[in-house]
Automatic annotation (TrEMBL):
SMART domains hit by this protein: HDc, REC
Name listed for the protein in its UniProt record: Cyclic di-GMP phosphodiesterase
4-aspartylphosphate sites (modified residues): 55
Species per Swiss-Prot/TrEMBL record: Rhodoferax lithotrophicus
Lineage: Bacteria, Pseudomonadati, Pseudomonadota, Betaproteobacteria, Burkholderiales
Pfam families in alphabetical order: HD_5, Response_reg
Domain HD-GYP: 149-371
Length: 371
């Protein structure tokens, strides 16, 4: 069924309204208004017109002023307007077109010309509306597919992280707890004066997504060390320490292979793989210490990537408050005291201050994902 188009005719002269109305009513639904104010009301009232024929010379509010008002209203800004006027100077036509008019017809009108111009503008509007609908659909479809891809990526990340976790039987729930701690800390530090501007929404999101991969390097640690039910020897601890380099190198190698296979798919920022660089930094540097006595690179202070500093605090809190085969969990209060004592030594001091304000939320997360 073909749509019946609605045309609004605006003119302060009754005879002009009668002429145009009679000409158009056999083809379209016609609305009329004899002033700018009434035209504004008619244009924004259902049925919303598909086209407006507008006289320029009207009292109180002329056609140029009315067009400007129409453009201000989201309901009417996209309605095409044809000026119908006795003002036939080139500069008058240019002014109308510059203000956003779709066309310009001079009086006295020629019926054939009016009908042809109206038909063209209505066809143009139909095409624009169709294109707008298609664009909206495509945007919605792209958003849906991006969401689906993100779910798949997150599931894949957790699968990889869980693979590493299954080789360490005493860390049940570790990736879920630490990811939640990281998200809590990362969001909170953006309000801290020292960190303002360091974490964009996208960077924060990447840190949270990458957090589960922090211990991916444990897949390279021999079982007899990783699963040892007691304290490690100095030599064994040196082997455990290599999981940071193993994890960081593995992620770097994966990134390089993607880059070699498709250079357009790899950037340091702003692509689906950008979070892997964050994951690499976290995997390699989450055991560095603020005082420079960590591993594997003995980085100190703010030379340690912020994402790794956040991960370090989350990881230690979880290790302290979780049961291991070689130790019992300690109460949250004791863990908080230990982390506080390590302020400026193991941990970024400003980050510890933020953590202290969040200790209740940390305790709730620990309880929620308790192994």
């Amino acid at each position: 069924m073909n749509k019946i188009h609605t045309v609004l005719v605006v003119d302060d002269q009754p005879e002009n309204l009668a002429i145009l109305g009679e000409l158009l009513e056999s083809h379209y639904r016609v609305k009329i208004a004899n002033s700018g104010q009434r035209a504004l009301h008619a244009a924004a009232t259902a049925p919303i017109p598909d086209l407006i024929l507008l006289d320029v010379m009207m009292p109180v509010m002329d056609g140029y002023q009315l067009l400007a008002r129409l453009k201000e209203n989201p309901l009417t800004r996209d309605i095409p307007v044809i000026f119908v006027t006795a003002k036939d100077r080139a500069e008058d036509e240019e002014r109308g077109l510059e203000l956003g008019a779709a066309d310009y017809i001079t009086k006295p009108i020629k019926p054939v010309v009016v009908l042809a111009r109206v038909r063209i503008q209505l066809e143009n509007k139909l095409a624009k509306d169709w294109l707008k609908d298609q664009n909206a659909f495509l945007e919605s479809e792209v958003a849906r597919r991006m969401h689906d891809n993100e779910l798949i990526q997150n599931a894949s990340l957790h699968a990889l992280a869980t693979l590493a976790e299954t080789r360490d039987p005493d860390t049940g729930g570790h990736i879920f707890r630490t990811q939640s701690y990281v998200q809590l800390l990362a969001k909170a530090i953006r309000q801290h004066a020292h960190y303002q501007g360091q974490l964009s929404d996208e960077h924060l999101k990447m840190i949270v997504r990458a957090a589960p991969l922090h211990d991916i390097g444990k897949v390279g640690i021999p079982d007899h060390i990783l699963r040892k039910p007691g304290p490690l020897t100095a030599a064994e601890f040196e082997v455990i320490q290599t999981h940071c380099k193993i994890g960081g190198d593995a992620i770097a190698l994966a990134m390089q292979r993607v880059k070699d296979a498709d250079r357009s798919a790899y950037r340091s920022q702003g692509t689906p793989l950008a979070f892997l660089e964050v994951a690499r930094l976290i995997a390699r540097s989450h055991h560095e210490r603020w005082d420079g006595y960590g591993y594997p690179d003995q980085l100190q202070g703010e030379l340690i990537p912020l994402a790794a500093r956040i991960m370090a605090l989350a990881d230690v809190f979880d290790a302290l408050t979780s049961k291991r085969v070689y130790k019992e969990a300690i109460p949250v209060e004791e863990a908080v005291a230990i982390i506080t004592a390590e302020k400026g030594q193991h941990f970024d001091p400003e980050l510890v201050e933020v953590f202290l304000r969040l200790q209740r939320e940390f305790a709730l997360i620990a309880q929620k994902f308790k192994a």
